[in-house]
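User: Run a structure prediction on this.
Assistant: Running it now.
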Amino acid sequence: MTSHSLDPSLIDRFAAIVGDSHALRDQGDIAGYLVEPRGLWHGSTSLVLRPGSVGEVGRIMRLASETGTPIVPQSGNTGLVGGQMPDASGREVILSLSRLNRIREIDVLSNTVTAEAGVILQNLHDAADAVDRLFPLSLASQGSCQIGGNLSSNAGGTGVLAYGNARELCLGVEVVLPTGEVFDDLRKLKKDNTGYDLKNLFVGAEGTLGVITAAVLKLFPKPRGREVAFVGLGSATAALDLFSLAMDRAGASLTAFELMEQRPYDFALKHAPGVVRPLADNWPWYVLMEISSGRSAEDARGLVEDILSVGLEAGTVGDAVVSASIGQANAFWNFREMLPESQKLEGASIKHDISVPIASIPVFIEQAAKAVEAVSPGARPVCFGHMGDGNLHYNITRPVGADDAAFLALYPPMNHAVHDVVRSLGGSISAEHGIGQLKRDELIATAPPMAIDLMRRVKAAFDPAGIMNPGKVI
């Protein structure tokens, strides 16, 4: 044994709970659990546990509390702020929820689904589709991300405008506490005012208060009509005007409104395999707009054509194309989803997941560009995101020809500069990715002291031993 590993006898005790085949000790088997999408965090562990039941999770947590062993819950390992990574000590145990992957129930009359934490998001989409229902949480990583991680990070995605984020889609949770006790709140109620709303302490807590093992989630009727338009615009202000017009004309039928600057659009055309140019001419800004109707395809088509014709007549819209088929609509969405991957091929980038009031988006874009240039002349802002809910992914690619490592060393001053603009506009430095390790220190330094104090009191009440995902959030 080294000082950077758990005592072998303790490893044996944990392994006995799940069985040797589900207690990974070999570093070759463990390696995949220590790699995260951005490559920014490199932790270490002596053990990955893969429980197959809520009872096993409870026994693991009881033993962890008894021995003071830190536990790092991990679902699909697609998080972007390091919340699912252990530290470098080797003493933190990774608790993988991937074997808790049953859909326990779909209740069509209640429009709910009860799913375990390890259910892959795409599988939940497919199960809902099979009973003519929609689960609207939609992320680029939905083929691998899992429900437990979606809830723990309060995931957002492209459907927030119409349906809300993960918290708003969750009616109830099942959580194993650090003591091993099970908080069973798997209720389907849409109205419940019996005391504190405890489930919302765990949604968005990034595994720092307990382990979400299952949840009751909302389903929705599938739209009978869906139209997707790709729009070219002259400015971010024009995009804001189009959003206002679309909300006025479509209301709740406006189910997505995604903003893209020309630079990420060009990166996708350059690097993404199989993408096709949606519009003949280049525009400074683009919007991907989706209209859904519960009535008919004709209704959805009529709404999108009305919005675009009014926008063209007013000079708000420069050019637009409406998808002529389901295949083309999916191709438009694929173009949008390829933006993050395309940016990677342009070199190192410093990323921001921010939100500001929707009306402030053009001002943010203008001021943030000046702040970026002051930190790194020639750096290339890559702006895209969910304009309909004020959430932008404001990522900065290194200057052409610059050194990747030297540019990444600017992470702290670049974050500081961009986040100063965000705060000046009354925004948030974390819109949908969470805090994790990436933003922990900045949260503590800049949030109202009373807010931090209250969060620490909650943490101490649920996790007095400090074993739940230490070093994350607060």
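The radius of gyration is 23 Å.
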